[in-house]
Design a protein that fits this description.
By secondary structure, this protein is mainly alpha-helical. Helix content is about 85%, strand content about 0%. The protein has ten helices and no strands. The protein has helices spanning about 1-10, 20-50, 55-70, 75-85, 85-110, 115-125, 130-160, 170-180, 185-210, 215-224. Helix 2 packs antiparallel against helix 3, helix 2 packs across helix 8 and helix 7 runs antiparallel to helix 9 (about 185-210). The protein starts with a helix and ends with a helix. The relative contact order is 0.14.
Length: about 220
C-alpha cells in the first residue's frame, strides 16, 4: 500500500516536488535510446567490415578486448572533462558501453556464417552484393540480435550510474535523491519504472527480430 501511494505521489506531485514520474521516465528513456541507437549505428558497419576481413579481425581483436574490458563508469571523470556535466557525457558513456558489446557480437556473427552457404550462392551465380544481403546478413542477424539484447541491459546499468551525478532528472537521479532523503519507497518505485522500461524495450527488440527474421521464428516453433 505504501508503494501504491508513492506511485501516485510521483505521478501527481513528483519527487523532488515538481519533477513528476513522466519527466524522470522521459529523461532516462531519451538518453538510453540516443546512446543505444548511436552505438548500434556505429557498431553494425564496423563489425561487418572487420568480420569479413581476417586481417582486420586479427589486427583489431586486441583493441576490442582491451576497450571492452574497461569499466564504463571509470571513464566518467574523463567524459566530464571532455563534454562537461551534461547530456553529451551521459549519451557518450551509454554509447561506449553498448558499442563494444554490439561490435563483438557483429564480428562473431559474420565470422560464424557457414562457408557452405556462401559457396552454394557462388555456385548459383550470385554476385557479391547478393551474397552479402541475401546470405551473410540474414545468417548473422540472430547472433547480432543476441548481442543487442545484452547491450540493452548494460545500457540500463550505465544510465542509473551516470544519472546519479550532475542532474535531478532521470530515474537514476530519482533513486539518488531518494537515498539522500531516506525514502526507500521512492527508490523501489524508481527501480520498478526502470524494470518496466527495460521490459518494454526488450519486447520491441523481440518484435523487430520476428519481423526481420520470420524464418527463425518458424524454426523455433518447429523445434518446440
Amino acid at each position: 500500500s505504501r508503494l501504491a501511494n508513492t506511485f501516485q505521489m510521483l505521478l501527481e506531485r513528483g519527487f523532488p516536488r515538481g519533477l513528476t514520474a513522466d519527466v524522470h521516465i522521459w529523461a532516462t528513456l531519451s538518453r538510453i535510446i540516443r546512446g543505444y541507437a548511436l552505438a548500434t549505428a556505429l557498431a553494425l558497419p564496423v563489425g561487418i567490415v572487420i568480420g569479413a576481413s581476417p586481417f582486420l579481425d586479427r589486427a583489431s581483436s586486441p583493441v576490442i578486448t582491451l576497450a571492452r574490458s574497461v569499466a564504463t563508469i571509470s571513464l566518467l571523470p574523463l567524459a566530464v572533462a571532455w563534454f562537461g556535466v551534461g547530456e553529451q557525457t551521459r549519451v557518450f558513456l551509454i554509447t561506449y558501453a553498448c558499442f563494444w558489446i554490439i561490435l563483438t557480437s557483429v564480428v562473431d556473427a559474420v565470422k560464424g556464417v557457414n562457408v557452405q552457404y556462401v559457396r552454394a550462392a557462388q555456385t548459383l551465380g550470385a554476385s557479391q552484393r547478393q551474397i552479402f544481403f541475401q546470405v551473410m546478413l540474414p545468417a548473422s542477424l540472430p547472433r547480432i540480435f543476441a548481442g543487442m539484447r545484452v547491450a540493452l541491459g548494460v545500457a540500463f546499468l550505465v544510465i542509473v550510474a551516470v544519472e546519479m551525478i550532475g542532474t535531478v532528472r532521470g530515474l537514476g537521479a530519482l533513486i539518488m535523491e531518494a537515498r539522500t532523503f531516506y525514502r526507500s519507497d521512492v527508490a523501489v518505485v524508481g527501480m520498478i519504472f526502470i524494470a518496466i522500461i527495460g521490459f518494454a524495450l526488450s519486447k520491441i527488440l523481440d518484435v523487430l527480430e520476428r519481423v526481420l527474421l520470420p524464418w527463425a521464428s518458424s524454426l523455433d516453433e518447429v523445434e518446440r
